[in-house]
Structures are given as C-alpha cells and as structure tokens.
Write a structure and sequence with these properties.
This protein is α+β, with helices and mostly antiparallel strands. 17% of the residues lie in helices and 33% in strands. It contains 13 helices and 39 strands. The chain starts with a helix and ends with a strand. It binds 1-deoxynojirimycin (NOJ) and calcium ion.
C-alpha cells in the first residue's frame, strides 16, 4: 500500500510539473506549456475555446550544449501586469500594456543546463522568448531554433518569400498547400540570398479557413537585438511552420554570450481583422525608451530631390558620368558634371522654397555626396564619403538658406551596403550633419553586405542597426533606414527611429507599379513592426519607367494617395511627388498640407487583408479627426458611422474622393472635394473607385 501511495504521489508531482498554462486577461486566449517524454518543451494556443496552435516545439540548437531535450520544470511563476505608457509619437497617445505572464524555469542535468521560457498572454495575442541565464557553457554558437507554429488545417497565408537580404516583394495570398506554386512566381534575387524552397518572411499573416468565423494571426517578432531575424520554413503538407534563423555565410545564426534573452516570438490573434491593425502587442513587448530627453524628436513631413531620379529619364544620384575611365576616384572636382544631377544647390533651393511655401518641414537631399561614381564604376567600389559634398552642392549656402526659410534639410547616407565602412565614418558623418544643421538622416543598404560574410538580416547587421540608432541618439539625430532588418517595435526603445523602408515601397510605382492591394496588405504585416517610409502622395500616376525609356503606371488613383497618409501612418512621412505635380492640383494638395503625422487616437472602422482598410485618427495637436479609406482593384461602396466623434460636437467634413468615373487604370486623376457638416450621429457614404480611396478631414467647429 505504502509503496503504491508513493508511486502515485510521485507520478502526480511529475504530471503537474510537466504541464502549466495561463489565460489572457479576458480569458479568450489560453496558452499551454508541456514537456514530452524526452523532456522537450512544447506550447499550444487556444482561442475562444478552440485549438488554434497545436502543440509546437520549442528549443535552441547550439554547438556547445543541448537546449532541446532532457528538461524538467524546476519552477514556474505567473504574474499579471496592467500598465500604460505614452509613446513619443505614434497612432495613440497612450498605450495599455495588459497581460498575464508565465515564466517556465527549465533545467536539464548532466551537465546542468538552464533555460527559462517566458510567455506573455495578452487579449490580442501571445509573445514568448527564451532566456538563457549565466551557466557553465557561457558562450553559445546557435545554429537554429526549434520554435514551431503548428496549425491544424490548410489555412490561408499572406506572405512574401524567405530571403536573407531583401523584403521588397509583392504579397501572395495563398494556402499552406499552394505555397510552393505561389513562391515559384517570384523572381528571387539570387540563390545565395534565398532561404530555401518554402521559406517565408515575417511579419506574415494567416487566416484560418473557418468560413463562418475566421481567426487572423500575425506572426512576427519583437525587440530583435543581438540575434538574427527569423524566417519561417513552411511544411506545406503538415500546415506548420518552423523558425529559420538567418545565418551568416559560415552557417552560424548567432554567437551568444550568456546571460541572454532572445527576441519575443509574437502571435497577434483575433477573429476581427481590425484588431490586428489596432494591436500594440509588438510595441508592448519592447523596452521603454532609452532616450530620456525626447524633446528633439519631431515628427515631420518632407519633400525631396528623389522622385526626379526615379522618373526623370536618366537623372542620376551621381554628379558625373565621367567615371569608367577613372577607377578609384579621389578627385571629384576633376570630373565633368553630367548635367542630370538633381541634388545641386539651385534645385535644392527650389525644393526649400516649395517646402516653406506649403508648410512642409523638411527637404531630403539624395545624391549630395561623393561616391556614386565609384559605385557605378567598373570596379564597383562602394566607398561613399559622408562629409564630402559634390562640387555643385554648396553645403554652407544650403544650410543658411534652409535656415532662413525655416526648413530642415534631411541628410542621405547611401552606404551601398558597405556597412563596415559606414561604421568607421559614423561619428564624422553625424558630426558633419550637426555642424550643418541636419537633424534627420535617411540611410540605405542597397547591394550585398560588406562584410561579405553577412546578410541584411543576419546577427551582425542587426547589431549594426542598433549601433547606428544608438550613435544617432547620441547626436540627437532621427533616422529613416532603408534596406535595414525588418522592424520589430524597437522604435519604442529608440524613438529617434522614426521610420524604415524594409518592404516594397512606393518607389516601385516607377518600376511597373504596385497593385492597389499591396497597401491593403502592408498594414497587416510589415507595419506591425513599426512605421514605413512608403512615400505616399503621388499625384502624377503615369511616369517614365525608372532608368528606361518606357512608361510606368502606378496602381492608384490620386485620391487614394491622400488616404495613404492615414492607412500607412508614419511620423516621418514623405510628400513624394515633384512640386510641379502638386501645383497642378492645389485643392487636392491642401489635404497633404493639412494632414498630421502624429496621432492621439486611432479607430479602425473596417478591414480585410488584401482588400480594404478604413481608419479614423485624432490629431495629437488639435480636436480634428481624419479618415482614410482604401480598396483593392475593385470599386467599393461603404457607409461609415461617425460615432467615434465626441458627442454633441459639430465638425466640417472635407471629403476628398474618387470622382464617379475614376479608375486607377483608365482615369486615376479624377477626384472631387465636397464639404458637409457632421456630428457623432452622422453617417457618410463612401464611393471608392477601383484602386481608389477616400480621405476626409473632420475639422472641429
Ligand atoms: C533605395 C531606396 O529605397 C531609395 O529610396 C533610395 O533612393 C535609393 N536606394 C538610393 O539610395
Ligand atoms: Ca529600397
């Protein structure tokens, strides 16, 4: 009897200690953790009483020690947190961070190994990360992560190919089973850059194939620091995905020194697509601002000598064409100017005048510095100088002129992916900016990364991005990075990181065009990591194809471009078109002049990925509301309810909409503007053209 009793008791303890769980504050999401008989950790997620993520593996593969099996639960802690914080800028002036947390402290024996897996379960999803405390093997060479996302059916996937170096792709709407076909349609940049046959990038979106009440899941990561980006290898037959860490060319994903914790793996979950857009889960999983005084961080709109290079046939960032005969250029003043170089003193002054006349804060000056010829030369050197202007760009004169007009110049640092050299020049470059009154920089990493053993999203480049943003903060410089690792909410910790590209942006309108659905996809995916420098505001939708004689047509109506200022929010928002194109449509341009870039509140009114988004936002600095609505290539009629407006207050709605005969293909510039008085009891009928949109200013009366 006694023996049996002891046997029973020890089994009971073992059972209770190999499985633990926790629910979200509302109870809708439940997270279960358990160990299998080999001591391997697994988690699963239920949503509203049904299994969403089936038991999925956890663990890390390291050269020095086993962090996959042999574990037992030493202890587990749970806690509930409910707090709020105020971002420096963003979609909301206050963000609630409310979750229940489960930390599972695992131990394996002979030799001793320790691993904590920390789960946070919010009402809008789940985050978890691996925490490696200091232990016997304190240096780990990480080859892979076992983290799985096992689903139970052939759900819909919205994704782009797995690629170590670029994310400038259009989105596929496919399923687990059809993914190989979808990925076959992509032109991938090079064999070396691709992750593998059915790899995809995060953020990705999944929609369950439950026709009555589908659940949407955004999978990504938060707080990517000191570790490579995560791709997902998709097992198309089993409806499952597995983490694939971007390796360096030696096949190593991460070199870690303990103690270390990985980025959070995130699942934003809801059966209402609007909640995916509204979710602040990824920001909540990032650390608070490391910058104490943020008074110098100022959201802004800007124009730039940029679109000229994309659409002006053969205009160049480079000052001269006279480079092929001169490998390893050192004396730029000896070069013959090509006369097709927009970043020259007179032209930049015109942009400064235009910005000053229209209340636009900044002017971006791409192609101002030495190095572009070197990049284009037959040797393809990639040696830019970040404190040496071209002979036709007068730094002093432009500094003084911009200042006299109350306009900020925005610096451009194209590194051509020579990140190693950029680090060497960084302090000089930032000091040069400060000396000449530049407070913001757009960085770029076009090409294969130098050091050559690295990729755009490998650990080294993730470290590089952190280094650049921290040095920029030291100099009180705001950053808009292009071709950097996809954002993971680090703009909370470094609020000087105003925007990133890290996806296919508006520049592709000059390379055949972005289909209208593209901007109905980005907010569900890429934007969950942080704002995008998408470059909205395109009024002339037919243009000369980038660097080719033929034409390109943008996938948009003019009115839709106004709506993008709401649906693609960014505190560093470009006004992308040429001044002369705005001067042709001054009444529509008024919306761009008026629209804020920083918000006190946001209400997502309607949303379906790849189809439509309607959002209302409250200006942070007034009582005015703005609404933006976009559709895909199908016309859309909708009736929006203005009950989000404060009760009893009157507003004048200025509605910028597609004209009845507008169509992105055949009649993109047909719009009309009407005014109507409204209050919180009003409804507005919206009529979106194929590829169109509506933008509304609601002026408080
Ligand atoms: C690619 C960037 O996305 C684009 O905005 C920039 O103008 C060019 N590189 C040149 O730096
Ligand atoms: Ca780019």
């Amino acid at each position: 009897m006694i023996r049996n009793y002891f046997l029973f008791a020890s089994l009971a303890v073992a059972a209770s200690m190999s499985a633990v769980g926790i629910s979200s504050p509302s109870g809708d999401i439940t997270l279960d953790f358990n160990l299998d008989s080999a001591g391997q950790p697994f988690y699963s997620v239920d949503y509203k009483g049904r299994q969403l993520v089936a038991p999925s593996p956890l663990g890390l593969i390291a050269d020095e020690a086993v962090f996959t099996t042999g574990f037992h639960i030493e202890s587990s802690d749970t806690t509930t947190v409910d707090r709020s914080w105020q971002p420096v800028w963003g979609e909301y002036s206050q963000i609630r961070d409310h979750f229940r947390e489960l930390a599972v402290n695992l131990k394996a024996d002979n030799p001793d190994r320790f691993l904590t897996i920390r789960f946070r379960v919010f009402d809008d999803g789940v985050g978890f990360r691996y925490e490696l405390p200091a232990q016997d093997k304190n240096y780990l060479t990480i080859r892979d992560e076992l983290t799985g996302f096992n689903f139970t059916d052939n759900h819909k996937l919205y994704c782009i190919p797995g690629d170590y170096d670029t994310d400038e792709y259009l989105w596929s709407e496919t399923t687990f089973a059809d993914l190989p076909d979808a990925l076959n349609n992509y032109h991938r940049h090079s064999e070396a850059q691709r992750a593998g046959g059915t790899s995809i990038q995060t953020p990705m979106l999944l929609k369950t194939n439950d026709t009555k009440n589908p659940v949407y899941v955004n999978i990504h990561e938060a707080a990517l620091i000191g570790y490579p980006a995560m791709l997902l290898d998709v097992d198309t037959g089993n409806n499952s995905m597995k983490s694939h860490l971007v390796p360096d060319r030696l096949g190593v994903s991460a070199y870690l020194q303990l103690p270390f914790f990985t980025p959070w793996r995130t699942l934003i979950i809801s059966d209402d697509a609007r909640d995916i857009l509204a979710s602040q889960l990824i920001l909540n999983l990032n650390e608070p601002s490391k910058i104490a005084d943020t008074s110098w961080i100022k959201p802004m709109k800007f124009v730039g000598v940029w679109w000229e290079m994309f659409t002006g046939y053969q205009k160049t960032w480079a000052y001269s064409d006279d480079y092929l005969a001169k490998p390893g250029i050192t004396d730029y003043s000896a070069l013959k100017p090509n006369g097709r170089h927009p970043a020259n003193t007179d032209n930049v002054k015109k942009y400064i005048d235009f910005a000053a006349a229209n209340g636009i804060d900044g002017v971006l000056v791409e192609g101002w510095n030495e190095g572009w010829e070197d990049w284009a030369s037959y040797r393809k050197n990639r040696q830019f100088l970040f404190d040496k202007a071209y002979p036709d760009f007068d730094v002093d004169e432009l500094r003084d002129y911009a200042k006299s007009k109350g306009v900020k110049l925005i610096m451009h640092h194209e590194t051509a992916a020579n990140a190693a050299d950029y680090e060497l020049q960084l302090d000089r470059a930032f000091q040069f900016m400060k000396d000449n009154n530049y407070d913001a920089v757009k960085t770029g990493y076009v090409g294969a990364i130098i050091p050559r053993s690295e990729h755009h999203t490998s650990q080294w480049m993730v470290d590089h991005a952190k280094h650049v943003i921290e040095r920029a903060a030291d100099y009180q410089i705001m950053v808009d990075s292009h071709e950097a690792p996809r954002p993971t909410g680090l703009c909370r910790t470094y609020p000087n990181w105003l925007a990133q590209e890290s996806a296919r942006g508006g520049e592709f309108e000059s390379m055949g065009g972005n289909p209208p659905s593209h901007t109905a996809m980005l907010p569900f995916t890429r934007l969950k990591g942080g704002p995008m420098d998408y470059t909205p505001g395109l009024f002339e939708t037919k243009m000369s194809y980038y660097n080719e004689g033929k034409d390109s047509q943008a996938g948009t109506t003019l009115a839709r471009q106004l709506a993008l200022y709401l649906t693609m929010p960014s505190p560093m928002q470009m006004v992308c078109d040429l001044p002369e194109n705005y001067e042709r449509f001054p009444d529509a341009f008024q919306f761009i002049k008026d629209v804020p870039v920083d918000w006190a509140d946001s209400k997502y009114l309607e949303a379906e990925p790849n189809q439509y988004i309607t959002v209302a936002r409250l200006d942070k600095n007034s009582d005015d509301w703005y609404v933006g609505a976009i559709t895909d290539d199908k016309a859309r009629k909708t009736r929006i309810d203005l009950s989000f407006l404060p009760k009893g207050k009157k507003f004048e709605a200025v509605i910028y909409e597609d004209a009845p005969d507008a169509d992105w293909k055949s009649n993109p510039q047909a719009y009309r503007i009407r005014k109507v008085k409204v209050d919180s009891r009003s409804h507005l009928n919206l009529n979106l053209a194929p590829g169109g949109g509506t933008a509304i200013q609601l002026k408080a009366l």
